[in-house]
Amino acid sequence: MTPRYSCALPPGADIVDKARLAERLGYHRVWVFESPAVYGDTWIALARVAEATERIGLATGVAIPGLRHPMVTASAVASVEELAPGRLVVTFGTGYTGRSTLGQRPVTWSELARYVRQVRSLLRGEAVEIDGRPCQMTHLPGSAPDRPIGVPVWVAASGPKGFGVARELGVPGVIVTAVPEGGDQSGWPEFALLRFGTVLEPGEDHTSPRVVEAAGPGYASTVHAVWEHGKEAVDAVPGGARWRAALEADRAEGLRHLVAHQGHLASLTDRDRSLVAAAGPAFLHAGWSGDAASIGERVRKAGVAGVTEIVYIPAGPDVERELHAFAAAARS
């Protein structure tokens, strides 16, 4: 089966224009980032896109427990579902970037599971205990859709614990960052794969300014992850020691998380641009970068492996070009 192609976008003033273009180009869904220290509000963006489009699906990419009370999330789900019935998928993750930028560790898998259960119970119209007290959606007709509200709830799964929780919760879909290899990753009705990169034009390579700006943010995000797991470990990455020195010169210890992830998956800071330059051609290998035929072949192979949806992250200053190019490659 050939996977459908979707896109992931940061909440911003121009998300409606990008979502309308994605709809015209045949994208299956628009996934909206959640990282409130770096981007705008996810649910406001989803509501704007819901009102401005007709067909394209909507998804949180991904919602993070701990940023909102479960009732606030359930009410937001209800509001978007009311604007775009049947088009919303709510996906929850542990919050690598969204919480790291707040100086917090990702939530545990047990915390995520509890939160998902609470939100699903609220959407069914049930009373559920939260923080020691019962909560229930008691909206009167006209204030929200009637319960139960049947919005699918997915999990952003990673590792044995993540897939174990997803199976325990019985979610209908997962989103991952690597092509499934069988075992715990196989057999999902909906299996989305998140990918960044750029479709290369004839003659372009790792030195092309357009390629650097479009594929560089994805590569930089992988280095940010190395830094989060061990500050000095980033020195082993090409240009990592220089990057860390620049970060440490910019902010004092205890404040560096505030700026380390700026532009996450969307644009390059000058500090991150030096990382990409130091990586040379290797930075193109972190995601899906190549000519249209090679991207199309990767889409095909992902489908053979069980992926049902490719979620592409267009980056750089010309997102319109990236959306056009990836759609053409995916259709091929």
Automatic annotation (TrEMBL):
<dbReference type="InterPro" id="IPR050564">
    <property type="entry name" value="F420-G6PD/mer"/>
</dbReference>
<dbReference type="InterPro" id="IPR036661">
    <property type="entry name" value="Luciferase-like_sf"/>
</dbReference>
<dbReference type="Pfam" id="PF00296">
    <property type="entry name" value="Bac_luciferase"/>
</dbReference>
<keyword id="KW-0560">Oxidoreductase</keyword>
<dbReference type="InterPro" id="IPR011251">
    <property type="entry name" value="Luciferase-like_dom"/>
</dbReference>
<feature type="domain" description="Luciferase-like">
    <location>
        <begin position="12"/>
        <end position="180"/>
    </location>
</feature>
<dbReference type="GO" id="GO:0016491">
    <property type="term" value="F:oxidoreductase activity"/>
</dbReference>
<protein>
    <submittedName>
        <fullName>LLM class flavin-dependent oxidoreductase</fullName>
        <ecNumber>1.-.-.-</ecNumber>
    </submittedName>
</protein>
